[in-house]
Amino acid sequence: MQIDGFSKLSKKAKIDWLLQTYFNNDNTARQILWQYWHNDKALQKLHDGFIENTITNYYLPYAIAPNFLINGKMYAIPMAIEESSVVAAASKAAKFWLDKGGFNAEVINTVKTGHIHFVYTGKTTDLIQFFRQNRTKILDSVAGIQNNMQKRGGGIKDLNLIDKTTAMSDYYQIEFQFETADAMGANFINSVLEEAADTLQTLAQKELSGDLQVLMRILSNYTPDCLVRVSVSCPVSKLKSDELSGENYALKFVKAVNVAEVEPYRAVTHNKGIMNGIDAVVIATGNDFRAVEANAHAYAGKSGQYTSLSHAEIKDEIFRFWIEMPLAIGTIGGITAIHPLTRFSLQLLQNPTAKDLMQIIASVGLAQNFAAVNSLITSGIQKGHMKMHLNNLLTFLQASPEERQRAELYFADKKVSFKALKDLLGRR
Ligand code: MEV
Q1: Is the dihedral of CA 148, 154, 158, 162 positive or negative?
Q2: pTM, whole model, 2 decimals?
Q3: Tens digit of each residue's pLDDT (9 = 90 or more) over 158-178
Q4: Domains and CATH numbers, the chain
Q5: How far does residue 270's CA lie from ligand 1's centre (Å)?
Q6: Taking burial as the number of CB atoms within 10 A of a residue's CB, which of 37, 152, 246, 250 is the most buried?
């Protein structure tokens, strides 16, 4: 059903229209929306304002994974995620590495890029000369926008004309490189690019004989030069499981990671497990998980074949496991200062700089990956996963406290399945 002017309707009118159109005026649907409204009017208004056409809130569980030792500092990590087992797995991995030196993290670099994408129909040599002559003018035109960022140690670090005509006829870029200090920087970068593009267009009209048309001016969410690396290591002898000696465990673990390095089908799942941890902290700290996801997967595919973001080796009886990935996140700007839970998360993390947060987030990714591969090469993931899932299934079946107790006891030493649970509780 088409509707015009939906955005202009009040919240109540929006809901009325939805209920009438898609729910046969069923009041339970209205109840669901109401249940998730916040009683505190000011807080609800804050949430309404984050996006457009808000009709209620969508909650994610917010949990804590304690015992993370990162570069010698202890952290309790906030994680916002709907998937059971993820927080338990991260916590377990953190505890495992706690007495083995914890996570060693380093930020390799922090450069972000943005582009003015344009087409130019004249001679490339003319364009090169034009750019050389006008580079300073373009920079001067964005001086006002840069002011604040420069005070915080960021700003434009470089800009270059790039000839892309072999990829697409008449296509060029001006590629800007930025440092954005503790901000993710999207607004800053896009403001600079839009202003610089206007300057470019105006100058080109006056000085170039060929036609220059700006197509787009936008940051790139691919940041292969904004990288973080985190590793854990311990003597092989400290790795044993119930069935495997330390040496066999380490060998099997490394081989499992090797599979993700050479086989894209496995790499995607392997990296998905990493992103379970990464996204949960990214969301809890008010960062943009879509940007983080796109960036991570582009980086994983940078060689032309999608591969693992993490790697493992055994050298001189020492097992080492590490991750290297791009992370463009911030601890100021966006909703970081506006959303009360985001503020809470950052305070819990001891008010990290963006670099600190890159290190924390990547450590959680590595922990998550360690936990997943550990399960995969030993008991499998279903045992632990379904135990956690049992709770969700019981909720779905609206189990009574007595039924819950019976189910938990029954499945203590058995694999959980929906069918087995229904059989146990006599449900159809
Ligand atoms: C499930 O959300 C994530 C895992 O599949 C990751 C992996 O296989 O490495 C367990």
Answers
A1: negative
A2: 0.92
A3: 999 999 999 999 999 999 999
A4: 6-48 (no CATH), 63-103+224-378 (3.90.770.10), 112-219 (3.30.70.420), 385-425 (no CATH)
A5: 6
A6: 250
